[in-house]
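Chapter review. Work through the record for ATP-binding protein before attempting the end-of-chapter questions.
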Amino acid sequence: MRTRHREPQLLGSEGTLDRMARILAARDIDQADVAALPDEPEPFSPLDALLAGMPPRYQSAVADHPQVLAWARGVAEAAVAPSRGARPQVTTGPSLLMAGVVGAGKTYQAYGAVRGLVQSGVGVRWRATTAADLYAELRPRPGVDSERELAAVSRCPLLIIDDLGAAKASEWVEEVTYRLINRRYNYELPTLITTNLAIKDLRSYLGDRVTSRLAQMTTRVEFEPVDRRRRRAAA
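Structure tokens for ATP-binding protein:
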């Protein structure tokens, strides 16, 4: 049996280019469009990835509160590199509870802290949600595996829970909050929590089980009773 031998063709040879031109024409593809494609994809930095999942209002947020910056340093120091020379990843770390009036800048500081973590060279899988949105997603309803969703939120390496205490209190809300916080407490997963409630009022809303765990797992900071949104609007 004879084996047919074909001379190798260079990509830039006339025959190859002609064949490519015919294929592109048959598929109605303009050769100019192909020529304009970059040789390599544009680099997509970790900060770009972070900003893609961040609300536009907070994409330029910069944390400057001393206790928020201290929390971010603690999380960065606890980050672990999965292999030699790899980027350190957030796996465990401290948590922070920010309390203050509406518009005090708590959410801005939270997003700024995560942004600062990424800029410092730490890798982090994170999720941000308001407490009201979280309860809406977890409420049992047809076609949704609420238990699976709760497990996913509970295991997220870094979680922002905004406006804890804004949703209407109920036994179901207290139970779901307990299960979420208890999981993160046990596994020492860093959690950023903001609330408009005074710290002294948390127990009446969240119950003893949740409040006790938050007291142990978080550094608590109360913001000045100033609505920065109204201040900026007035200026």
